[in-house]
Amino acid sequence: MPKNKKKAESSSSDSDEGPVDRNPPPEKKAKMGSRTDDKEPTWVLQGKKLVKIREFKGKVYIDIREFYEKNGELLPGKKGISLTPEMWRKLLSLGDEINEALSSLC
User: Fold this and answer.
1) How far is residue 63's CA from residue 48's CA, in Å, rounded to a whole number?
2) What is the DSSP letter of 72?
3) Using one digit for the tens of pLDDT, what is the confidence trace for 62-90?
4) I need a labelling partner for 8 at 20 to 30 A (CA). Which of 17, 24, 43, 106 fits?
5) At 6, which helix (H) or strand (E)?
6) What is d(CA 44, CA 50) in angstroms, rounded to the nearest whole number?
7) Transcriptional coactivator p15 (PC4) C-terminal domain: from which residue to which, for each copy (predicted)?
8) Is the pLDDT of residue 91 over 80?
9) Burial of 52 (0-12, 13-18, 19+ CB in 10 A)
10) Could you tell me the pTM of the whole model?
11) Is 97 helix (H, G, I), strand (E, B) or coil?
């Protein structure tokens, strides 16, 4: 019986904001710490789509990724790809072949 009484008390409210969560979930922290641009060479492809050379777990990657802004800070999003230097060099070596195939399509 006390449960019903407690429920009725908590649901009655004078505001139009709805129920108030007294224990909001903790804010999620960004997975990667903020780094300065001088530590990560960066090139803008378009808008917030960037190419960066980054280090992760002691290895270097070429990161082609869409970034988003949160609290005035630019953070990496899920949309993107990280290439090892070997994969990057392979991609560059395929450039002429890719351009040729692209020319036939557009």
Assistant:
1) 13
2) T
3) 999 999 999 999 999 999 999 999 999 99
4) 24
5) helix 2-11
6) 5
7) 43-93
8) yes
9) buried
10) 0.59
11) helix
| Residue 67 · residue 41 · CB < 8 Å | no
State the Cα–Cα distance between residues 41 and 74, nearest whole angstrom.
14
Tokens of 85: 């230097």
Query: Do residues 59 and 76 touch, judged by C-beta distance below 8 A?
Result: no
Closest CA to 44 of 85, 83, 74: 74
**How many residues are there in the chain?**
106
Burial 56-92 (b: 16+ CB within 10 A, else e): eeeeebbbbbebeeeeeeeebeeeeebeeeeebeeee
Nearest to 82 by CA among 39, 37, 34, 50: 50
